[in-house]
Hints:
Elements: H1 11-25, E1 33-40, E2 46-52, E3 71-77, E4 80-89, H2 97-121, E5 135-136, H3 144-156, E6 164-168, H4 170-177, H5 180-185, H6 194-197, E7 202-203, E8 206-210, E9 222-228, E10 232-238, E11 248-253, E12 260-267, E13 271-284, E14 290-294
Parallel strand pairs: 1-10, 5-14, 6-8
Antiparallel strand pairs: 2-3, 4-13, 6-9, 7-8, 9-14, 10-13, 11-12, 12-13
Helix pairs in contact: 1-2
Amino acid sequence: xxxxxxxxxxxxxxxxxxxxxxxxxxxxxxxxxxxxxxxxxxxxxxxxxxxxxxxxxxxxxxxxxxxxxxxxxxxxxxxxxxxxxxxxxxxxxxxxxxxxxxxxxxxxxxxxxxxxxxxxxxxxxxxxxxxxxxxxxxxxxxxxxxxxxxxxxxxxxxxxxxxxxxxxxxxxxxxxxxxxxxxxxxxxxxxxxxxxxxxxxxxxxxxxxxxxxxxxxxxxxxxxxxxxxxxxxxxxxxxxxxxxxxxxxxxxxxxxxxxxxxxxxxxxxxxxxxxxxxxxxxxxxxxxxxxxxxxx
Length: 296
């Protein structure tokens, strides 16, 4: 078999470049309770994720007995095994790091993470109770006042002040960028918001994410979500290394979040193939910790 001529492309380098991308594109997953590790699991496995809930206050004049720490458990089935496969022909030239990142690695990993976020948001349905706290806001009507109302709604339901997230379609996000209140806040020598960077990292206690993947409408016409971390849960595990594999296999783990993808590479006689994949699942945490932004 002829050797592949793409001397500038090797699994180790692609793995490192992939990790750099993963640290960036995986940031929106912080909006949810995450159970992300490089422990090995197979599709269909069930993992139990726990998160702390607010303890009850007691009257110390009557008793100072210690109470039990309260956690909420959620079972998450790892039923999503999704990935992207890309290939390079022998006749293609060796790529620079910039070419690899911009043309192949970023789109591949971004596609996987977008799919993960979309699958988590698919849990926001009336059947799961999210219609009880929905807020009807059109894209053109979203402004700083509406964001303040969303924050007040979460506070009324005793959702922790931090962290809170606001996940928006681009048509909603851009309306906030044009809001005079937020534009004014970005003025000055330290301003790094809407004017200079097309970016609104925080607003009224929310980490704001423009999500240009698929925000599933579900059965409530959802266009965005204001939530605390406990509203939704996502779990991710490393994919088992295949036995008798003739190619190269590497797990890529973000050391900060634990998010793990697997990269497999092999030469099929025509192309050098690279496959990126993730094994994950999601579940509802506490539906009252979210307000679905619905278009109608």
